[in-house]
Write a structure and sequence with these properties.
Layout (H helix, E strand, L loop, with lengths): L3 H12 L3 H17 L3 H21 L20 E4 L12 H15 L1 H5 L8 E5 L6 H11 L4 E4 L1 H4 L6 H15 L3 E4 L3 H4 L9 H16 L5 E6 L7 H4 L4 E4 L5 H11 L10 H7 L5 H17 L7 H18 L4
Parallel strand pairs: 2-5, 2-6, 3-4, 4-5
Antiparallel strand pairs: 1-3
Helix pairs in contact: 1-2, 2-3, 8-10, 12-13, 12-14, 14-15
Length: 333
C-alpha cells in the first residue's frame, strides 16, 4: 500500500488541481507495488493512470482555469505581461501572520458583493515586504489562482524612462488597464519606483513618477488587486505605506517551517527514514526558494542515479551548496 507521505502528496496534488504531480506520485505508488511483487495491482494502477492522463489531454483543463483574455496590445504590451498561474495557498509554507492576512484578502474578495451592500470595500491594495525568495511573488500568483483572475506583471524596464513625463504617462496606461480588465497586477521590485523622495538616489523623473503613482493608487476604485513587492522596505517612501490596505511582511522560514518545506518538496521521492528536523539545521538562513531548489536538485540526483528514494546525504549536499552560494553573495552573514 502507499506510504503516508505518498497519500498526502496525492491529496495535496488533487486539491491543488495539479494533474501532472498527481500522476507522478501515482506512478511512484505503482512502481513500489511492483517491487513488492504485486505485479497485477501495479499493472492495473498504471492502466488507470494512463487512462486518466488521456482523458485530461482530450478534454483539457479549461474548466478549472481562468477564462483566457487577450494579451495586452499596442503600447500596453510593452508595459504588462499576463500569466494564468495554477498555484494554490496550500502549496505555500507561511508564518501564521502572513497566512492569516492572505486568507483575509481572499475572504473579503470572495464576498465583495456582501461588503458592497454595506458600503464597504474589500482589501485589494497590498504591499509585500521581505528578503528575496520568501514568497512575495508567489503570493501574487496564489491570489490570482484562488480568485480565478489573470496575473499581470508590470515591466519596469519599459515603464521607467529618462524622458520627462513619459514614465508617468505609461503609468497612467497601466492604471487604465486596471479599470478595464479585472486581474491581479504585480509591481515587483517596487523599490525601482518607490524610493524615498529626497534620498541620495532621488532623481527628478523618478520623483514625478512616484508622485503620479501615489495619486493614481489613491484615486483607483477598480475591482483589480494591486500588489507591490519589494526586498527593501526601509528604502520606500513613507507616503506609500498609507496608500495600501495592508502591509505583509515576509521572512526566512523558521526551523519548523523549514522542516515542513522539506517534507512537502521531497514528498514524491522521500524515504520513510528521512529526518526532516535534522535536515532543517542545514537549511538555516536559506529562503523558501533556495530550500525548494536544493530539494529539486537532490531528487534529480536520485532519479539519475536510479534510486528509489532521496538519501539524506544528497539533500544535505545541496543545502550546503545553497548556503555556501549565499555566503559568497552576502559575506556578512
Amino acid at each position: 500500500m502507499a506510504r503516508a507521505d505518498q497519500v498526502k502528496a496525492l491529496v495535496r496534488a488533487f486539491a491543488g488541481n495539479e494533474s501532472g504531480h498527481f500522476y507522478s506520485v501515482a506512478m511512484q505508488v505503482a512502481a513500489a507495488e511492483a517491487q513488492r511483487g504485486h505485479v497485477k495491482l501495479a499493472a492495473e494502477l498504471k492502466e488507470l493512470i494512463e487512462a486518466g492522463r488521456n482523458q485530461v489531454a482530450t478534454r483539457g483543463s479549461s474548466a478549472t482555469r481562468p477564462m483566457p483574455i487577450g494579451q495586452p496590445k499596442g503600447e500596453l504590451a510593452e508595459l504588462l505581461t499576463v500569466h494564468y498561474p495554477q498555484v494554490h495557498l496550500n502549496h505555500m509554507v507561511l508564518s501564521a501572520e502572513v497566512e492569516q492576512k492572505i486568507e483575509r484578502v481572499l475572504k473579503e474578495q470572495r464576498q465583495h458583493e456582501r461588503l458592497a451592500s454595506h458600503g464597504l470595500t474589500p482589501r485589494r491594495k497590498l504591499l509585500l515586504v521581505g528578503p528575496p525568495g520568501t514568497g512575495k511573488t508567489l503570493t501574487a500568483s496564489v491570489l490570482a489562482t484562488e480568485l480565478r483572475l489573470p496575473l499581470f506583471i508590470a515591466r519596469f524596464d519599459s515603464l521607467i524612462t529618462k524622458f520627462m513625463g513619459e514614465s508617468a504617462s505609461k503609468l497612467r496606461l497601466v492604471f487604465e488597464a486596471l479599470k478595464s480588465t479585472r486581474g491581479v497586477y504585480l509591481f515587483d521590485e517596487f523599490d525601482t519606483l518607490g524610493l524615498q523622495r529626497g534620498g541620495q538616489h532621488d532623481v527628478a523623473e523618478m520623483r514625478r513618477t512616484l508622485n503620479m503613482f501615489l495619486q493614481l493608487i489613491e484615486q483607483d476604485t477598480s475591482d483589480s488587486l494591486i500588489i507591490a513587492a519589494t526586498n527593501h522596505g526601509r528604502s520606500l517612501d513613507t507616503a506609500l505605506f498609507r496608500r495600501f490596505d495592508d502591509v505583509v511582511r515576509y521572512d526566512t522560514p523558521t526551523a519548523h517551517q523549514t522542516a515542513e518545506l522539506l517534507r512537502n518538496a521531497l514528498a514524491v521521492l522521500a524515504s520513510p527514514s528521512l529526518d526532516y528536523e535534522m535536515l532543517s539545521g542545514y537549511a538555516h538562513g536559506l529562503s523558501h526558494s533556495d530550500i525548494i531548489r536544493a530539494c529539486n536538485d537532490a531528487m534529480k540526483d536520485a532519479v539519475l542515479e536510479q534510486q528509489n528514494h532521496v538519501a539524506e546525504a544528497q539533500v544535505i549536499e545541496h543545502l550546503k551548496e545553497r548556503s555556501a552560494a549565499q555566503r559568497e553573495l552576502l559575506p556578512g552573514i
